[in-house]
Amino acid sequence: MNINDIDYYLPRELIAQKPANPRDTSKLLILNRSSGEIKHTIFHNITDHLGKKDVLVFNKSKVFPARLYGRKKSKGKVEVLILRFLGKSDSICEVITKPGLFLYEKILFDGFEGKVIKRSGYITVMEFNLPYQKFLKKINILGHTPIPPYINKTDLSEKELREKYQTVYAKTVGSAAAPTAGLHFTKELLRKIEKNGIQTEFVTLHIGLGTFASIKEKDIEKHKIYKEYFEADLETIKRLNKAKRSGKRIIAVGTTTTRVLETLVDEDSKLASKYNSNFTNLYIYPPYKFKFVDALITNFHLPKSTLLALISAFVSFPNTENIFTNFQSSLLGKAYEEAIAKEYRFFSFGDAMFII
């Protein structure tokens, strides 16, 4: 599949620079992938389309202020984005830097320094000269919320960004980007969902380069996804398997949740507990067959991205009768075209889709 097969044109003014306020007042496009029917509503009305035979599965990973600004000994400025921690006792992290750094180069920050100890492709491994707990405190003081580069006109303060670019149910620290499908849920909406008897479950995938790295290959099948750490509690797995056996609809909130569930599923279409804490580099694109996820809540994604490839697979053969040839002529492409015409807001702070 050529990279141009998952491309589309988006007017720049539709890239959301701040979230809806309140969160659940964002627009919601509901796409029936079997009939092709498209409906439009407001996100807080999603409860009208959920019932006791549904299970919502969320990614509870919590974003940390992963972007640090330092300087070289030559005074040149350096931006460091921490992707994940490799060792707690000695504060070793995988990072990406701007500009690229040389092996053993040292970067100075306010009160500490980092040294490059390994380089591999996009990834730089950096060792910081602070104990783990002190390093975390420094990050919380000096770090910046790692919003994507296309959010460049926001007037939100760092304090506001830390609240807005975080799901209300975030719990386990470790993501360098937010699981954005979950940003639409408020505490009030979650209470309503619980009151309506809808089952909710939580898994964790710490978002890093695997999720947000763009596809560079002309042939998208040659693209390699960087591994990301995930966890699924054994009791959660048992409850999800029971729900699936009983015929409940498994609704993944976001592409990261989707990748956790599809990573864990075995040949019998149930979640295996053997590797419930592991890394995944699962790359989903047409014609991938989904084995566990029945419906999906997601945002509107960037052109030529792995996330758009995943959603394209979800709405096409063998999951539906719609054979995918290219995005523009696909059912998903038509939904995006309608969303653009109705001036939906796109990407991380944008509006949402519910694909059933």
Tell me the helix content: 10-25%
Between the first and last Cα atoms, what is the distance in angstroms? 25 Å
Strand order of the largest sheet: 2-1-17-16-14-3-12-13-15
Overall pLDDT: 96
Question: Superfamily at the CATH H level of the largest domain?
Answer: QueA-like
Major sheet size, sense and barrel closure = 9 strands, mixed
Q: According to CATH, what is the class of the largest domain?
A: Alpha Beta
Q: How many strands in all?
A: 17
Briefly characterize the structure:
The mean pLDDT is about 95. This protein folds into 2 domains: about 5-65 and about 160-355, QueA-like (3-Layer(aba) Sandwich), CATH 3.40.1780.10; about 65-140, QueA-like (Thrombin, subunit H), CATH 2.40.10. It has helices at about 130-140, 160-165, 185-195, 210, 235-245, 255-265, 305-315, 330-340, and strands spanning about 25-30, 40, 55-60, 60-65, 65-70, 75-85, 90-100, 105-110, 110-120, 125-130, 170-175, 200-205, 230, 250-255, 275-280, 295-300, 350-355.
